[in-house]
Amino acid sequence: MGKIYIFGHKNPDTDSIISSLVMADFEKKLGNNDVVSCRLGMLNKETEYVLNYVGVEAPELIEDLEDGQEVILVDTANPGELIPNLANVKIRKIVDHHQVLINTSYPLFYRAEPVGCTETIMYKLYKENNLKIDKKIATLMLSAIISDTLLLKSPTCTEDDKNAVKELSKIAELNYETYGLEMLKAGTDISSFTIDQILNLDAKFINLKEVKSIIAQVNTASIPEVMKMKSDLEAGMNKIIKENNLDLFMFLITDIINSNSQVIALGQKANIVEKAYGVKLENNTALLHGVVSRKKQVVPIMTENA
Ligand code: MN
Ligand code: MN
User: Fold this and answer.
1) pTM for this one?
2) Distance 39 CA to ligand 1 centre (A)
3) Which ranges in the chain are annotated with CATH 3.90.1640.10?
4) 177: CA distance to ligand 2 center in Å?
């Protein structure tokens, strides 16, 4: 049997990277040693902080795989954000907390739960299989849950996520609030990235009914700091709109301290933002009070109003 490649979505966030590492540990503990943690893109600063803190190597960067390779998918089941040759590889397992968007012609292990983070499901899988979670793995898992739920403050956060964080903090011997804030803050450092990289760090192609869109997000501790780059960001967004024939590009600058997002919206369908949130875009931007979750507070309401 060949190797099994484990990876999450393109423009990987902390959960996608950590899920590929944790799933590899899980598989090894189940006795499957021929597994490789992979990633489909550059690490962000938050993920770098976590990997440095724990002292683990980043997963291997891949772009595509050959026909027949075996894979495990984590933190996504969306073919649009995976490898080009997905139709010809063999998916063994999927563990995810998003919408189900994939079809296969063969059976597979598929675990999806509407929780805040893939690691909350992984935590349950370790328990169900009576597998021990060691300190490093616990720290990784904890970090991913803090990242996806913005320190348990996002509306995507469930009781299961909170419980996992509580238990994992004990194993990790960490005060998750202090550690989590440091980790989230590390993720707000975008000073070394180009405008294009910033726009792509956490960008998702999403069709809002017929409206072809990108919804991208960046975390910050200071919205005005990021807004200093507004004209450069807009120039970059307009370029991406042209290249991809988009109707809408929403760039969310999310304040992790106060839980609000400043949106910059461009494209011929930018007015959907005004309709969806009852705001007026002034110079292409508006503050969206209390909005932090793309999955819960942006995609559904934008789809409804598209
Ligand atoms: Mn993710
Ligand atoms: Mn996730």
Assistant:
1) 0.94
2) 12
3) 4-186
4) 19
